[in-house]
Specification:
The protein is of the alpha+beta class. It is built from three helices and 13 strands; from the N terminus they run E-E-E-E-H-E-E-H-H-E-E-E-E-E-E-E.
């Protein structure tokens, strides 16, 4: 059953930041109509329901079309996804290829490759889902993916502060989100004991009552990525594509993940944003859906 919806009131907020990364600028005012957003990211159990009901095959499980990757040996184009592997020790943080690897056979059911599974992670966010996979699930539920502005507004909460919970990263020393705890990318003590994804709702909600808006997994939005916020034209949104993923188009990710560490990626903030090609599935990207209908209109109890 789809996740319980939380109603977000209409209003205006100051979107963006000039304190961290250039792509978050400029700060500008955005006004939104009321909408409803899922209380937490879509879980493995919920995505499994979708697959069982529809027979859907994710991008990571589909044969790769050589025409989309000219110059690449067709023998190397095997279905799979990107998997994070911690390094043995300190490395040059400018080269992400030292901790990310292409894993044939990796998929949402086997996020780290053929020898892994999600049997004990029913309540963890689903990962290894590309943008069309997230859009297909949203379409099945009668919902859609949020725009970047909707996502940021919901993540900030009524206070519209630096983090989803306030201006301090760790108020009174309390860990508020599932982010990397240790020295990236080789030593992680785990957030509340979770090294990798954590069950949805394991960390405190924001003022709107939303869980995991920061950390745990990055989340797909319907907004195409640009190098900075565009004020001269509305941001372009891709609405529930039913065709193949376009590797030349990057969507905007929001929220940061369990791999965010301050020495490498201080993007576990509402204003933070990151590009990701539509066809890419990884061990740290998930999603949640939104609805234009009131939160109580026919939605069941939380199905996580």
């Amino acid at each position: 059953m789809p996740t319980e919806l939380v109603e977000i009131p209409s209003g205006s907020f100051r979107m963006g930041s000039t304190s961290f990364y250039p792509e978050e600028a400029p700060i500008h005012t955005v006004t939104l109509e009321a909408f409803a957003i899922e209380r937490h990211p879509v879980t493995n159990a919920q995505f499994a329901e979708f697959v069982a009901a529809t027979g859907y095959v994710t991008v990571a499980e589909q044969p790769i079309d050589p025409a989309l990757y000219p110059g690449v040996d067709p023998g190397e184009l095997r279905a799979g996804a990107m998997v994070f592997r911690p390094t043995a020790g300190p490395v040059d943080l400018r080269d992400w290829r030292q901790w990310w690897t292409w894993m044939p056979g990796a998929s949402w059911q086997r996020p780290f490759g053929p020898d892994s599974d999600v049997a004990d992670r029913a309540d963890h966010p689903v990962v290894q889902v590309a943008y069309p996979d997230a859009a297909a699930y949203a379409r099945w539920t009668g919902r859609r993916l949020p725009t970047e502005a909707e996502w940021e507004y919901a993540a900030r909460g009524p206070g519209a502060t630096a983090y989803a919970w306030g201006d301090e990263e760790k108020p009174s020393g309390r860990l508020m989100a599932n982010t990397w705890q240790g020295s990236f990318p080789y030593h992680n003590d785990g957030a509340l004991g979770w090294a990798g994804t954590s069950p949805v709702g394991a960390f405190p909600p924001n003022e709107f009552g939303l869980f995991d808006m920061i950390g745990n997994v990055w989340e797909w939005t319907a907004t195409e990525f640009s190098a900075h916020h565009r004020l001269d034209q509305p941001p372009k949104a891709c609405c529930a594509p039913s065709g193949p993923a376009d590797p030349t188009i990057a969507q905007t990710l929001k929220g940061g993940s369990h791999l965010c560490a301050p020495e490498y990626c201080h993007r576990y903030r509402p204003a933070a944003r990151s590009p990701q090609s539509q066809d890419t599935a990884t061990t740290h990207i998930g999603f949640r859906c939104v609805s234009d209908e009131p939160a109580g209109s026919g939605d069941g109890v939380d199905g996580a």
